[in-house]
Amino acid sequence: xxxxRLMALKKSGGSVGLPDGxxxxxxxxxxxxxWIDTGYKYGVSSDIEVKFDISTGGTLLxxxxxxxxxxxxxxxxxxxxxxxxxxxSAVFDISGxxxxxxxxNTGDLFKLTDxxxxxxxxxxxxxxxxxxxxxxxxxxxxxxxxxxxxxxSLIYYCRFYENGELVCDMRPCLDADGVPCMYDLIRxxxxxxxxxxxxxxx
Length: 202
Hints:
By secondary structure, the chain is mainly beta. Helix content is 5%, strand content 46%. It is built from one helix and 19 strands. The chain has one helix at residues 3-12, and strands at 23-24, 28-29, 36-37, 46-54, 58-64, 72-78, 81-85, 90-93, 101-106, 109-113, 119-123, 137-138, 141-143, 146-148, 153-162, 165-174, 180-184, 189-191, 200-201. Strands 1, 2, 4, 9, 10, 11, 15, 16, 17, 18 and 19 form an eleven-stranded antiparallel β-sheet that branches. Strands 8-7-6-5-13-14 form a six-stranded mixed β-sheet, with no helix packed on it. A hairpin with a 2-residue loop joins strand 6 and strand 7 (81-85). It is globular and about 45 Å long.
């Protein structure tokens, strides 16, 4: 870690809502071997908002009990297509969009906005949807065997809503020892890497 860079961040502030000694950063980044267990289960009344940059195929976040789409939720990249896998899938063509991107849904409507303000919309029907009984992982998909389908990506923040109420607001930061992690401002919980190596940050 660049100690001079860390000290400059601490002097600049930007740690509103974080525990004492924690330092806000713009994003955390995975090499393809790190992931976080959010402890949150995405169901039929769940909405998500995430700001991210994904550069390789794989899952940005997700969980699934089985291959039955009634029991899975995932945001995954394949080529230039960003897939929202939930009951009836939504697919965004992200070629030409300027990263980072913000994905947000309200019920069946998913909006994807790029860094210049270009917005695309897709729908993913929730009829008959149940959701996974496994918690969502960031930077990977959580299935009964553990973390799979990891990728190289950055997350700037990730929020979950239940029936329109904000229930998780995860922000990238460095803990008091300088370890990159996510801190949930709502649940007041620090979420650390569960994989190999360490996140980088910026």
